Each structure stands twice: as structure tokens, then as C-alpha cells.
Amino acid sequence: MKIEKFSHKFDYVKKKTIVLVGIMGAGKTTVGKILADRIGIQFVDADQEIERAAGCTITDIFEKYGEAEFRKGEERVISRILSGQPCVLATGGGAFMSQATRLLIKKTATSVWLRVSFEVLAKRLEKRSGRPLLQTVDPQQTLRALINKRYPIYNDADLIVDAKDDAVDITVSKVAECLGDYYNAKQSV
Ligand code: S3P
Prior knowledge:
Blueprint: E1 17-21, H1 28-39, E2 42-45, H2 46-54, H3 58-65, H4 67-82, E3 87-90, H5 99-108, E4 109-115, H6 118-127, H7 139-154, E5 159-162, H8 168-187
Parallel strand pairs: 1-3, 1-4, 2-3, 4-5
Helix pairs in contact: 1-8, 2-4, 3-4, 4-5
The structure holds shikimate-3-phosphate (S3P).
């Protein structure tokens, strides 16, 4: 299937980085790649950049250095990406929990929370359980606890898109529409 590019109406969207936030399994990377392609800007995955900078996988970073060190590296890498060219940036699920990162995103980018229900996430993560934070006795309970802690903070994002269990294309279109409305509203004030 040929992917339609968004029209030139989205040119102004290209001027500022779009940061996708949300919990593990929300679809930030999958949605981000297609969104970037359609808008016509670069896609960057923060987790991949962290792995590149560290020279090992995220699982290894957690095992060798612990979560606190991972978080420091995550803040540094995201700050570096935000100082570069506008892009679509998919962040790891814990990145937006850092106040410093949240403030930087507020100042330099437009943030979009891909909100997904516990039920949809639990189903998705059952199939792909490589995440260090979910290596617990009861991953579903851990996921619930993360949702309770993080969703009130994700709520600070500029835009919220309910991703549900929709096909990726539908979510991408919803995000684009939301961004379009957001920029149009900003331009008209
Ligand atoms: C994390 C989510 C992961 C990754 C790391 C920590 C989190 O990214 O950054 O395992 O704290 O939720 P994804 O959200 O892309 O899975």
C-alpha cells in the first residue's frame, strides 16, 4: 500500500520537534516512524540513541549500571536531540517523568501523549516482554502501578491522542489531525 504524504498544509508542523510520550507498548516508535515519513521530517528513537551512545542494549544498561544511571543518560540524550533539527522523537516510557526533560520539551517541542488503556497494553506486552521494568513476579500488576503513577504526569503533554487498539494508520492520522488543529489554533490567536 502506498503511504500518502501529508499535504503542504503541514509545513509549519516541520518547524518544531514532535515528541511522542506514553507508556511501554503505546506504539510511540511505530506511530512515530510513519508520522515522520508522512510529514517529511526525520524520525528519532530516544531508546536507540541511548543504546548507540552507551554501546550496549537498554537491558544491559539496567543490569550493569541500574535504572538511576539509565535515567541520567536518557536525560542527556533527549536534551541533545532537542537541541538539533526538528524531528519526530519517540521517547521511552519513563522519559517524561523527569521534570527537567518535561520542562525542556515544553520549551522546545510539541508533546503528544499516546494514551492507551491497561487492557490493550496488557495484551500487547504479553507478546513482547523484553522490557527490564516488566521483569517482575506480576508484570500486569507492575504495569497497573506504572499507569497509576505515570498517567497523571503524561497528562501534562500538549496534546492527548487516544490510541485504543486502532490500526497504526488510524492513530497516525489522529495524531496528524490533532497537530493540525493545535497549530491552526495557535496561529489564529
Ligand atoms: C522504560 C521504557 C522503555 C525503555 C526502558 C524504560 C520505562 O521504552 O526506555 O526500558 O521506564 O517505561 P519504551 O517505552 O519504548 O518501551
